[in-house]
Design goal:
The complex is a heterodimer. By secondary structure, chain A is α/β, with parallel strands linked by helices. In chain A, 31% of the residues lie in helices and 25% in strands. Chain A has two domains: 192 residues, Rossmann fold (3-Layer(aba) Sandwich), CATH 3.40.50.300; 69 residues, DNA polymerase, domain 1, CATH 1.10.150. In chain A, a hairpin with a 2-residue loop joins strand 4 and strand 5. Chain A is globular, with a radius of gyration of 21 Å. In chain B, helix 5 crosses helix 6 and helix 7 packs parallel to helix 8. Chain B is globular, with a radius of gyration of 22 Å. Classes of the chains: A alpha/beta, B alpha/beta.
């Protein structure tokens, strides 16, 4: 599969109260055409900031201080704001947890879709509205011609998320970044949305999807490959089967063990003691060492680097070498 | 089932409970008679001492409203709530005060329920002072004791809620619920806001406290993984009604209501070897403002029959402690003659 996006040493810092928090720290991965890559981790691990950094959609107190984001031979981090505005939406697009982030409550959804098509694909209004209806149908909205005149509030949360997906597809982007796209949805509606992603993935082989979520069920069902983040870093990466059946990093192992649905019987769940570290004060050495059941003398001293365990499967843990 | 709970005393009985909310007329364009949202529409169940009953369902199914009626934070419209045999449906304020010692709640977001201007020590001491629990001189020690019961060091009594992590705040929420030694805790999505690793800590804590103090839990949750791990029995709600009730394993292994079946099939299993692409349930739950006639689930049901559009199915027993409200389970000769169970 062709590599679409190459992310190298992406590092993003936030300034708060005169101090700097390194929320994303030297994150490196590739996204290939036709794949769904899952970026998973707990709150504060930097997974969403990674997604926002790729599109350079960061709040004013955040800076990308290092790294490269190559999309088709161009480093997005070297683009001017104006160039980036044109790339966003047309070549790399984002779906957010709350669909209202992307929708304007005061305009009918048809107008919002048509506007994108006019701007990015140079269509006239009648043609754009026709295409808008086709896109709505493709994301599973029935009688789309009639729904074009409806406002966002007239749709349920699940339907709004479909409309946002239709809008992002309007420009046929190469890279789709989806940040917790099903987290706010009820489980039966989530199942419909996961099915939609699966269909998109089969129909658009030239698109790569980066799926950011904390939900390991969603990852297991949808992704081809998985990157596990902890405290700003990718600690393990591999095929979805490898991650779920042969997790190598003690954090991945502990995370999987603490899923109630995977636990056997009603005994105590294997919890990870302690809490996720604050990005203002990461532990020294391996950032997981204070919570790690396999910690040894080197862990507080040395920063582990990713070690290849098998083709495509890497883990950053001193158990596997330095 | 939790063996200790099986033959223990009946703690809570809910009989045909209804909670209807009037809807402001202007929202509906001013026409017609006053509309009602039937948030809880005839729910019955019971809970024994030491037992955990889970109420599951999607948003708008009425599970949280039901929890709030039992706590009497909402006044039920109709029906009966009995606590240790006493009818508390319309208990007056004085009696409610006493009942609130016995029935406590844990919220999803403890941050919203903890006063940001008070230290954790002050927050935990407040109910002890209000209810005049123990000699005043000993209350600081009682606070320290509460903290240790939920796994927090005594020094936390001097901190403020914003200084704590989500998991620590939920521990404080649990300590506050335990302060007056309740018998029943309504836990409304107690771990939904927490990260997986912390969620496991809190579930383990709740399980330990249940063992130690013989607490009963009414667990309100949309997370079926949590429910399967933690509860003895499960009630599945859809649009204000319980459509299926069963011991937990029985429900997960042998679901009989088409809605329960669809709900369980919709859970994304955290195992790529169990990858499925089930045809998801079509459509969305209808509004409780205007529920469909007959079985509320019939417009989305793949097995809907003509009678489902007209009549509300009664509860059909399918095994010990397991019933489902679905005409597919009707074994009477008339139903068999009418064509039996369709594909």
């Amino acid at each position: 599969m062709r590599t679409l996006l190459e992310v190298r040493n992406l590092t993003t810092e936030f300034a708060t109260d005169g101090r700097r928090a390194r929320v994303v720290d030297h994150v490196t991965f590739d996204l290939r055409a036709g794949e769904i890559l899952g970026l998973v981790g707990e709150s504060g691990c930097g997974k969403s900031t990674t997604g926002f950094s790729l599109l350079r959609l960061l709040p004013s107190n955040a800076d990308i201080v290092e790294g490269e984001v190559w999309l088709d031979g161009e480093d997005l981090l070297r683009k001017s704001d104006e160039e980036m505005r044109r790339i966003r939406g047309s070549r790399i697009a984002m779906v957010f947890q709350d669909p209202m982030t992307s929708l304007d409550p005061s305009f009918p959804v048809g107008d919002q879709l048509a506007e994108v098509l006019e701007e990015h694909r140079g269509m006239g209004r009648p043609e754009a509205l026709e295409e808008a209806a086709r896109l709505l149908r493709s994301v599973g909205i029935s009688s789309p011609e009639a729904r074009l005149r409806a406002y966002p509030h007239e749709f349920s949360g699940g339907m709004r998320q479909r409309i946002v997906i239709a809008i992002t597809l309007a420009c046929d982007p190469q890279v789709l970044v989806a940040d917790e796209p099903t987290t706010a949805l009820d489980v039966t509606i989530q199942a419909q949305t996961l099915r939609l992603f699966r269909t998109l993935n089969t129909e658009r082989r030239h698109t790569g999807i980066l799926l950011i979520t904390h939900d390991l069920g969603v990852i297991a069902q949808l992704c081809h490959r998985v990157a596990v983040m902890y405290a700003g870093e990718i600690v393990e990466m591999g095929d979805v089967e490898a991650i779920f059946t042969r997790p190598a990093h003690p954090y991945t192992q502990a995370l999987l063990a603490s899923i109630p649905a995977r636990a056997r019987g009603r005994g105590a769940l294997p919890a990870i003691e302690g809490t996720v570290p604050n990005p203002m004060a990461y532990p020294s050495g391996c950032r997981f060492h204070p919570r790690c059941p396999k910690v040894f003398a080197d862990c507080p001293q040395l920063r582990p680097q990713p070690v290849q365990l098998s083709p495509g499967h890497t883990a950053a843990c001193l158990l596997y070498g330095r | 089932m939790n063996p200790r709970a099986m033959n223990s005393e009946m703690l809570l009985e809910v009989l045909d409970l209804r909670k209807h909310f009037p809807v402001a007329r202007r929202l509906l364009g001013g026409a017609g008679s006053r509309k009602m949202v039937r948030a809880v529409d005839g729910v019955s169940f019971s809970l024994r001492r030491g037992e955990t009953l889970a109420l599951v369902g999607e948003s708008g199914c009425g599970k949280s409203t039901l929890g709030r009626c039992i706590l009497r934070l909402l006044e039920p419209t109709q029906g009966e709530i009995r606590f240790r045999g006493e009818d508390i449906t319309h208990a007056p304020a004085g009696r409610l005060r006493e009942l609130r010692r016995r029935i406590q709640i844990i919220f999803q977001d403890p941050y919203a329920s903890l006063n940001p201007r008070m230290t954790i020590g002050q927050i935990l001491r407040e109910p002890l002072d209000i209810y005049n629990e123990g000699p005043s001189a000993q209350r600081s020690r009682m606070v320290t004791d509460l903290l240790s019961r939920v796994g927090l060091a005594p020094r936390y009594s001097h901190t403020y809620p914003h200084q704590l992590s989500g998991g620590q705040r939920q521990r404080v929420g649990i300590a506050a619920a335990l302060a007056l030694e309740p018998e029943l805790i309504v836990a409304d999505e107690p771990v939904s806001a927490l990260d997986l690793s912390v969620q496991a800590q809190i579930l383990n804590l709740l399980a330990r406290l249940q063992q130690e103090y013989g607490l009963s839990f009414l667990l309100i949750s949309h997370d079926l993984g949590v429910v399967r791990h933690f509860s003895d029995r499960v009630a599945v709600m859809y649009l204000g009604r319980i459509v299926e009730m069963a011991p937990t394993e029985e429900l997960f292994v042998n679901p009989r209501h088409p809605y329960t079946q669809a709900l369980l099939a919709s859970i994304p299993q955290p195992d790529p070897r169990l990858r499925a692409d089930p045809l998801p349930l079509a459509g969305e739950p209808p509004s409780p403002l205007d529920p469909p006639a007959g079985c509320h689930f019939h417009p989305r049901c793949p097995h809907a029959m003509p009678r489902c559009r007209e009549h509300s199915p009664p509860h059909y027993d399918v095994a010990a402690g397991h019933y489902a409200s679905c005409f597919l389970l009707d074994q009477t000769p008339a139903a068999a003659a009418a064509g039996g169970i369709p594909g």
